[in-house]
Amino acid sequence: MTKSCPPNLKAVPEPTTWDARLARRLVTPLVGTPVTPNHLTTLRLAIGLGGAYYLSLGQFWMCTLGALLIALSNLVDHTDGELARISGQSSKIGHFYDLACDALVTVLLFLGIGFYVAVHHPSMIVPAQWLGGLAGVAVALIFFLRMRIESMVGKSGTKQASMAGFETEDVLYLLPVVTILNGMTPFLIAAAIGAPLFAVYVAVDHQRVARQMRRAQASLAKDGNDFQAVR
Hints:
Layout: H1 18-27, H2 37-56, H3 60-87, H4 92-120, H5 128-153, E1 162-163, E2 166-167, H6 175-180, H7 184-230
Antiparallel strand pairs: 1-2
C-alpha cells in the first residue's frame, strides 16, 4: 500500500532551488504532526547561535564545527517555510519570527568570524571585530529594508536571484570549505566590503518601490476624486 501525499502538497508549486526542494522532502512527513513551522524556526535559530558561538572561539577545529553548524542552519532555514506552505500553517507572526531569526543568526555569524580573525590577525589596520560588526550591521539593514519592501509589494518584491537552483545565500554552504582552507580573513574582508555595498543597492531599491507606491496611491486618489466629481 503506497502512502498518499498530503492534500495541500499537490497544490503547492515545487521549489525552484535545490535546498528548498530537499527541505520539502524532509518536512513532508511532519505534516499532520504536532511539529509546527515555528518549531523548525527555533531549531534553525539554536543551530545558528551555536555555529556563531563556535566561530568566535578562535580555535581552528571549533571554527570548522561552527561553519558546519552555520551551513546546517542555512538548510534548516528552508524547512519552516516549506512546512508552512504544504501544511497551510503560514502566518504573519511566523514569517516575522523567521525573518528576525535570519537577521540575528547572520549578524552573529559575521561577528563570530570577526572574533575568529582577530585571534589570528590581531594587528590588522582595522580590527577584525569592527569588520565583522560592519558586515553584520549592513546585513541587518538589508533584512529590514527587504522586510519593508515585502510589506509594500509582497514577497515577490524581495525574491532573490537564482540560477540553476542556486541563490546568493548558498555561499554559506561553502563556509566549512573556507574555514578548512584558512580563508576566513579574505572572506571577512569581502563581506565587510560587499555587504555595505549591497545594503546601499537595497536602500536605493527601497526608495524606488516607495516612490512607485506613492505615485500609485496618488493616482488612485485622483481617480477617486474625478469619479466623485462626475457623479
